[in-house]
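Model it.
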Amino acid sequence: MRRHRLAQFQHERHRGDRTAGRSEYLRSFTDYWAGRAFIWKGVAKLPVGAVMVREMIISRDEFCRTDFYNEWCRPRGVEAVIATNLLLEGPLSTVMAAYRPYAEGDFDAKETRLFAELIPHLQSAVRLQLRLADLDGQLEGSAEILDRLVQGVILVDAEARVIFANRAAESMLRAGRGLVLGRAGLRAEIPGETRRLRRMIADCAEPRPGRGGAGGRLRLSREHGMPLTVLVAPHHTRFCWIDVVRPRAVLFIADPEATAALSQQWLREDFGLTSAEAAVAVEVLEADGLRAVASRLGISLATARTHLAHVFDKTGTRRQAELVRLLLRSQPAVREDQVAGRH
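Modeled.
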């Protein structure tokens, strides 16, 4: 089956709307709709460099009755489309499309001519990029590594607009607690903290004398819960898979309420605990007392004490607080569901 590389360019009123949510809906297209979206299959069959509007494949009335339109395209304004098959190399086709809501009108003859004039230049750029790097490996490898982290990672431009966010950061932004994503970019719940955050990001893009160096560390208050800790640092490396807007700063975000899930399997392997002892060790992290641990596990308090004593012996600790510190520090800060072979 032919694979399709889809390059999408959306003219948006607010560039700040190109956010973590964008990567989520692109992922939904790749994971589900790409294999079912008849339109992109139709584009891929066109002669290389030919201009296509959707009505060449399906009428608007028919298109508006499809699940693809109602569940994916319409909510995102992907309605009026002009597209082309830029390249065809072996099993890989490169499709580029521009789109907008029907409410803004279809693409007219002038826009179609302009689109056609751009195609040769876009083909040259894509060929060059494909020669310089294996984009598939770069995109999947780099994003996969960042998505495994429990810590949030966000790449932003000089005005605090999100260019990329890993999965942990996407969850934080969706929650909107401490760090909020608006049309004007990232902001905190407290205006003063927003100003400080954006000043750090701006300094990463253009360091200024007397500002104490680019970037920095700050805590973002949350109305309910412990503050987020954010480290802002300059970003100088270019990623070939982010080639539209260059990131100027990278944010590393720690949420004390979202620590890495402690794997009982890892505890058994690392410290030689039995299944029962590992279960007690994990529950001890809740820090609400051994009686509560016994209640959650459905065992007697005496049995819980016996298991905990064995855990102390095998880990070389003496107190619950010391055990908790050891367990948290000994575990890799990755999402357990992202580690193959761990259950």
